[in-house]
Design a protein that fits this description.
Strand order of the largest sheet: 5-6-9
Number of helices: 19
Number of strands: 10
Radius of gyration: 24 Å
Shape: globular
Strand content: 5-15%
Structural class: mainly alpha
């Protein structure tokens, strides 16, 4: 799974404390390019070695009854693994070629870090906190299964595709993860404590709007390890930030090990040493930087917009969106749906196939321009639509249509919208102190930001010959909305003439 790890695993305190009750010499392990050897306990292996976790399935899954015999024969040549075939960063690899890692690797990484975190608490505060083997196993399983509900192209499916199909839908990958966990347990008759599975599911949704009220749980700090709804610091972020930075060749000066080695539980809450406040800030800053430079790169968004359009055009024929209703169908969806569409002979899929061919040939939607929403307008900002741009076109020249324009509203923040994430984080002075406290902005650094959210509006032309007209309409929209052109510079004339 990755490059050789030069860490001496036999001497590392992080590794020796990770073990469960069993002897690591007799444990199955995988080698990860971020965390080194990851040891897998027997219960975790029961979940990992299922087709729903691996997602090993014949490509003919795609509602085979809709396809003719020729397609089914063609599709039978392909088999794939679901979490292994769900790229962690969706279509980002089209811009950053190294971003080929999958949800499978990430899930193992979070499993590893979740186990190390709870073992750290057990080592130093085990008697005080009452941590037992049940707690350790539960947290590790939550880390392993937290992303099992993701759909094709990761967040694109949930945030871009489904809202266009089911307007106002509250569907989320966290909720689907809960259904998938139950489905895997029932389908494979996994002998696992029902109370443990209940807690695992609660931990998976702990940072979402579907989290249970905190008053209904004991050992609340355990629910903040995998998905922290309290302050946003969790091992899920620890893993994907380091893993994504490495895969994309982006520098990362955030050291999660420093936080894991020194964190402490006070009043049922995970707290951090006051001297590590800049390390905490680097966590949020590095995440925001990844969003700006990698996840929402203009070319990445152009490709994602095309993938969404391709899926929407294929949806009425393939009924892709209906799979979200039942985990029995849903687990069969992964990124290879694009290949399935490409090789399908059906005329109903021609528009989708043409869009995918454009992506293959790098004939992408053309980025026209962007602007950052002024700070004083952020509070009441409403997403800009293609209709807004078309309605801002002045008379004369080509007449734009809504289907010619694509708009991407990109929100980048430090996990808490326009609020400072450090406000919710409690620190402690030293290990002799039992007091926890927050650190005000003015005590940290005057170089830290005073605004914690960016809202960027990007406009694309679906046809190269319309770049000029759409760019002009976009500028008119800015003048009409803000009384000025908020973009950094005008669209280059060369780009406008490109056909």
């Amino acid at each position: 799974m990755g490059a050789i790890c030069h860490e001496d695993l036999s001497l590392s305190p992080r590794r020796t404390n990770f073990a469960s009750c069993q002897d690591l010499r007799f444990s199955k392990h995988v080698h990860d390019n971020v965390h080194g050897n990851i040891y897998l306990d027997p219960l975790a292996l029961k979940f990992i070695d299922t087709e729903q976790f691996q997602r090993k399935v014949d490509c003919s899954f795609l509602f085979a009854y809709l396809f003719n015999v020729m397609l089914l024969i063609a599709l039978n040549y392909f088999s794939h693994y679901r979490l292994r075939d769900l790229k962690q960063l969706g279509m980002t690899h089209m811009v950053y070629p190294g971003a080929m890692h999958s949800r499978f690797e990430h899930s193992l990484g979070v499993y590893c870090l979740a186990g190390e975190s709870v073992q750290q608490f057990k080592k130093y505060q085990g008697l005080e906190l009452g941590i037992d083997a049940f707690d350790i196993q539960t947290v590790k399983l939550a880390g392993l299964l937290h992303d099992v509900g993701h759909g094709p192209f990761s967040h694109l499916f949930e945030r871009e595709f489904l809202p266009c199909v089911h307007s106002g839908s509250k569907w989320s990958h966290e909720q689907m993860s809960l259904k998938m966990v139950d489905y895997i347990v029932d389908e494979h008759h996994i002998d696992v404590d029902s109370g443990m599975i209940k807690k695992v599911k609660e931990m998976i949704v702990a940072s979402s709007e579907f989290a249970l009220p905190k008053g209904t749980r004991e050992k609340l700090f355990l629910y903040d390890i995998v998905a922290n709804g309290r302050n946003g610091i969790d091992v899920d972020k620890f893993d994907y930030i380091v893993r994504d930075c490495r895969a994309c060749g982006v520098g990362c000066n955030f050291e999660f090990q420093r936080l894991m080695e020194t964190m402490r539980v006070l009043d049922d809450e995970i707290c951090y040493r006051a001297k590590d406040y800049l390390t905490v800030h680097k966590l949020f800053y590095t995440r925001a930087d990844l969003y700006r430079t990698v996840y929402t790169h203009p070319k990445v968004k152009a490709i994602e917009l095309m993938i969404v359009d391709a899926l929407l055009k294929a949806n009425s024929f393939l009924e892709i969106s209906s799979a979200v209703e039942d985990p029995c169908d849903y687990w069969k969806l992964d990124d290879t749906i694009i290949k399935s569409i490409e090789i399908a002979p059906d005329q109903e899929l021609k528009e989708s196939k043409d869009l995918i061919l454009r992506i293959r040939r790098r004939n992408l939607y053309q980025f026209c321009n962007e602007y950052a929403v002024p700070k004083d307008k952020l509070e009441h900002f409403k997403d800009v639509t293609a209709q807004d741009i078309v309605c801002s076109q002045k008379n004369g020249g080509v007449i734009l249509k809504e289907e010619d324009v694509a708009v991407s509203n990109v929100r980048i923040d430090l996990t808490r919208g326009r609020s400072n994430p450090l406000e919710r984080i409690n620190f402690f002075k030293d290990y002799e102190s039992e007091d926890k406290f927050t650190i005000p902005d003015d005590r940290i650094s005057h170089l830290l930001p005073t605004c914690y959210q960016d809202m960027i509006v990007r406009v694309y032309s679906k046809k190269p010959e319309l770049v000029g007209a759409i760019s002009e309409a976009f500028e008119n929209f800015q003048l009409k909305t803000y009384g000025l052109k908020a973009q950094v510079h005008s669209t280059p004339e060369k780009k406008k003439r490109r056909v």
